[in-house]
Design brief:
Helices cover 35% and strands 22% of the residues. The protein has 63 residues and is α+β, with helices and mostly antiparallel strands. It has one domain. The relative contact order is 0.26.
Length: 63
């Protein structure tokens, strides 16, 4: 999030690993993940203040 730091936008983030047994309630071996790329099992949530939302959105979109 270097782009936010460079533009003085404060942010927090949360990462969820959908391959994690704590999230699904079952282990990887039980639910199966053959052929799935583990780097695609993460979801990133980025939070900014509502006053900074439009500016942050435009920075991410590249506009």
């Amino acid at each position: 999030m270097i782009i936010f730091v460079a533009n003085n936008i404060r942010y927090t983030y949360k990462t969820i690993n959908y391959d994690n047994s704590e999230f699904t309630g079952v282990g990887r071996g039980v639910k199966g993940s053959f052929g799935e790329r583990s780097e695609f099992s993460y979801m990133y949530y980025i939070y900014v203040h509502r006053n900074d939302y439009e500016h942050a959105y435009k920075l991410i979109q590249g506009n």
